[in-house]
Amino acid sequence: MERQTVALTMVPPEDHINNGIIYVLINPVMPGLVKIGITASDLPSRMKALHTTGVPVPFECVCAKQVRDCAKVESALHMAFGDHRVNEKREFFRIDPERVKAVINLLSGEEIFIDEDAGAQDERDIIALKSENRRASVFNFRMVDIVPGTTLEWLYDSAITCVVVDDRRIEFEGKVTSLSAAACEISSRTGAVGGAYQGPRYWKYQGKTLLELREEMEQGGE
Questions:
Q1: Of 22, 27, 35, 128, which sees the most CB atoms within 10 A?
Q2: How many angstroms separate the CA atoms of 18 and 74, rounded?
Q3: What whole-number distance in Å separates Cα of residue 183 and Cα of residue 197?
Q4: Three-state SS for 23?
């Protein structure tokens, strides 16, 4: 009897098909806006693709994580922050990215670390990005009507505080420093990997981050 050979096609498990990266992107020329999306595998390529002729500088990644059922995760985040969505046809939300990051940190999966200039296509993009970041990061306490002596709280732990010294500086653990330097110091203690920290995103006053207060002031003045 002639033996027949049957060719079997291996079907990847469903979990593998649904794996992907959920990401949160910001752009210094789009202050206050956050993009929440997913990609199959190559996030830097996705970031470069988003840097079209209509976008002056590349996007930066606030956080990214390899997750199961990435489409479901994305839909859940879009629904959770739906009242902050700018346009139902776009994945942009007017919200502090740290709020979205806090939710993503609760998800199981592998955290993906992306260089801050990963979305740049050439050296000119990198120069433009750094220039805009410097411009966006300029902050002083007069912008939000905060006076010297005011106590600020760390975004993730209200027991961690600092005191405003003057228009730009704070006192943290007995040392006069900047918002960003203090944020970097605190984050390093949690094992965070490098990166720059925009101080106003991480310190809050009366329940709101300094960035949120700044945006409220600017919108109120328009």
A1: 22
A2: 12
A3: 6
A4: strand
Which amino acid is it at 220? G
Pairwise CA distance, residues 36 & 91, whole Å: 6
Q: Is the dihedral of CA 119, 124, 126, 127 positive or negative?
A: negative
* Cα-based distances in Å from 35 to 64, 94, 176, 214: 12, 9, 35, 20
Sign of CA dihedral 146, 99, 43, 193: positive
Alpha helix segments (H runs only) across the chain: 14-18, 43-50, 70-80, 97-104, 123-137, 179-189, 210-220
Q: What strand order describes the sheet that includes 169-172?
A: 175-178, 169-172, 157-164, 151-154, 203-205, 208-209
Contacts of 103 (CB under 8 A, 6+ apart): 77, 80
Q: Provide the whole-model pTM.
A: 0.60
Instruction: At 104, give phi and psi (nearest 5°).
Output: -60, -35
Residue 187 amino acid letter? S
pLDDT tens profile 96-147: 888 898 899 999 899 888 877 777 777 887 777 777 666 666 688 998 999 9
Neighbours of 50 (CB within 10 A): 15
Q: Kindly report, residue by residue over 28-38, the tens digit of the pLDDT.
A: 778 778 899 99
- Decide: 48 and 121 in contact? Cβ < 8 Å: yes
